[in-house]
Amino acid sequence: MDIRGQFSFDRSSRMEVPGQSLINFYTLRTEPHEGLEVGARLKWRGRLWDVESPPARYSGPRATAHVTVTIRERVNS
Fold first, then answer.
1. Cβ–Cβ under 8 Å, residues 52 and 71
2. How many other C-beta atoms lie within 10 A of the C-beta of residue 3?
3. Could you write out the DSSP letters of every residue in 14-75?
4. Which residue from 18, 30, 57, 68 has the least number of CB within 10 angstroms?
5. If we measure between CA atoms, which residue out of 58, 51, 25, 56 comes closest to residue 37?
6. How does pLDDT run along the chain (77 residues), one tens digit per residue?
């Protein structure tokens, strides 16, 4: 399934393991999609990302209804 949306940087945090890699988090704003829920995987910019937050739904006219989720970059993907 292809998902089109708007990505915006949210935050970075350090892993708590030797090497202290950075983990990036982005917010994805898109139309509601089946399967876009916590634990789902997305491929963006050639990397795998995990959906970290349940979809926050914003209702309204069809032109403005959307959901937002936080995605986390998978390390070593």
1. yes
2. 14
3. E-SSTT--EEEEEEEEE---TT-STT-EEEETTEEEEE-S--EEE-SSTTT-EEEEEEEEPT
4. 18
5. 51
6. 678 888 999 888 776 766 667 788 999 998 888 888 898 999 988 889 999 999 888 888 877 889 999 999 887 65
